[in-house]
Amino acid sequence: MKNLKRFTAIAVTIASASFNLYAKDEPVVCASLLTQSHPFYIALGNGLKEGAKLQHINLKVSVANQDLAKQINDIEDCITKNVDAIVISPVDSKGIRGPLKKAERANIPVITVDIGAENSKIVSHIATDNYGGGAVAGKLAVKQLGGKGQVVMLSYPGISSVEARLQGFRDAVADTDIKIVAVQPGKTREESMTSTINMLQANPETDLIFAFGDDMMIGAGLAVTKQKSKAVVIGFDGMPEGIKAVDENDHIIGVVKQDADAMGKTAMKVVADYLNGKEVKSEYPIVPVLYTGK
Description:
This protein is of the alpha/beta class. The protein has 2 domains: about 30-120 and about 260-285, Rossmann fold, CATH 3.40.50.2300; about 130-255, 3-Layer(aba) Sandwich (Rossmann fold). Helix content is about 50%, strand content about 20%. It has 10 helices and 12 strands. The chain has a 6-stranded parallel sheet, sandwiched between helices. A 6-stranded mixed sheet has the order 7-6-8-9-10-12, sandwiched between helices. Helix 5 runs parallel beside helix 6. The protein is elongated, with a radius of gyration of 23 Å. This is Monosaccharide ABC transporter substrate-binding protein (CUT2 family). Its main location: other. One of its GO terms (cellular component) is cell envelope. Belongs to the bacterial solute-binding protein 2 family.
């Protein structure tokens, strides 16, 4: 009987050791994405999953669907489950502060991807150089318009990456005679088309539209066609559908191309390095490039 008890105790110890070894080898990481209805975020999600496989990470992905309340619930659920790390593309850079503060108190490291989080403790931020990409778009606008004309822009209030793109564009045209005459929100392709129609009707002399994403660029392009406007469109993201839109539409003259796949894989590499005690940088900017057609 004593030998049986001793054998049972040894078996339990071995089983526990095996479980702990698995947990160490396969850290559990939660990823909360802004949406999966946008081609960029589909590519980002795929990059995260591929990166997780490469780094031997057990990745749990949730999609906020642009709903801050849902994202908060998802993150708080991850904290309750005491995951090893959280990767997030915030729905609202300021509004996500509460749950990220809870993660900090729980000693769960947070990495932001594409969109930053304001007033929160973040281990690292992986994103396109959004300001630089906006400046690239602005320089194309200056070249296209010869330094003079009227521009309208589509925005997504509360999203830091979008605000950086718009600011980069503004600064690139600041010393020219290009005037930004209107800015309206466009979170979806449909809303972007409606907002662009409204801006074109209010500003019929508009020469160019800057759209912060592929869907917004395509929505703006549809608005230009409907209004029979002379305006041309510059976009941002450069996923396959966005590249195709540049190739097939004369009024869409260029798109600043992001590398969402590299962004996702980089995020997983940063998580793995941090959890393994390696030094990581506070920012990993992914440099975008300009695409103007075949």
